Amino acid sequence: MQNKKNNNVESLRDKAYSRIYSDILTLELKPGQYLSESFLQKRYDIGKAPARVALIQLEHENILQNMGRKGHVIRPVTIKDIRNIFQLRLFLEPSAARFAAGMVDTEKLAELDAVYTALIHENASGKKNFREIHKANKNFHLEIAKSLGNDQLMNILNKLYDMDMRINYLMLKSFSDLEHWNFDHKDIRDALEKNDGALAEKMAHQHTEKTQTQLMSYIMRLPNLANVNIAI
């Protein structure tokens, strides 16, 4: 009975954290916004303990900054944050692709990529489905990592892709046509279908590096970074 009670408490805390975390990623809660226990209790209809645990966890993840009696403030995304995310992706994704050759389910990968490609084309037609696009892209890359059976790698990449989604949401007002961007997975998929680890590594590196170059070039051309809540 006690174990069941403890599990219910943990479940409530996890659900509260997930809702708050999701709202930060999708800018329902914006950079610079102050969060307090009482605010979270009222907004999410949760108790004091789940609100406190969520604030502490998000502070440990460097998403929130503790401002003492004022509560916690949502940290802004900085240019350095964006560069750090891509640096980690460039360390991890190409190596994952290399070792996934001969292990990843290439038919499943093709299915996931087909979903992603269809969503990109729908968006070009005027349907603003950014969350679905990001989820499909994330699922493609995580399928490669999942084939390695490394839970730690999966957890790290999962967080990196979440932070990547937050950046994309910050940029939504400025994105006009996703088809002009390099989001194609075909070269990576082809290399994995050939079981060519070295080529898969090369294609994954080129894909991530080109995406970083396009994004940073676009950001640096913006007249005012503050308009998209990105700090220098």
How would you summarize this macromolecular structure in one to three sentences?
The protein has helices at residues 2-25, 37-44, 48-60, 79-100, 106-124, 130-146, 151-171, 186-193, 197-220, and strands at residues 34-35, 64-66, 72-74, 77-78, 230-231. The chain is mostly helical.
Describe the structure.
Strand 2 and strand 3 form a beta hairpin. It is globular and about 55 Å long. The strands form two sheets. It has a three-stranded antiparallel β-sheet. The protein has a two-stranded parallel ribbon with strand order 4-5. The protein is mostly helical and 232 residues long. It contains nine helices and five strands, in the order αβααβββααααααβ. The chain starts with a helix and ends with a strand. Helix 4 crosses helix 7, helix 4 packs antiparallel against helix 9 and helix 5 runs antiparallel to helix 8. The N terminus is likely disordered.
**N- to C-terminal separation?**
52 Å
Q: Could you tell me the radius of gyration in angstroms?
A: 19 Å
DSSP strand content: 5-15%
Given as residue ranges, the uncertain stretches (5+ residues, pLDDT < 50) are 1-7
Order of helices and strands: HEHHEEEHHHHHHE
Shape: globular
State the helix count.
9
Q: Roughly what is the average pLDDT, rounded to an integer?
A: 87
Total strand segments: 5
Biggest sheet statistics: 3 strands, antiparallel
Describe the secondary structure blueprint for this structure.
Blueprint: H1 2-25, E1 34-35, H2 37-44, H3 48-60, E2 64-66, E3 72-74, E4 77-78, H4 79-100, H5 106-124, H6 130-146, H7 151-171, H8 186-193, H9 197-220, E5 230-231
Parallel strand pairs: 4-5
Antiparallel strand pairs: 1-3, 2-3
Helix pairs in contact: 1-3, 2-3, 4-7, 4-9, 5-6, 5-8, 6-7, 8-9
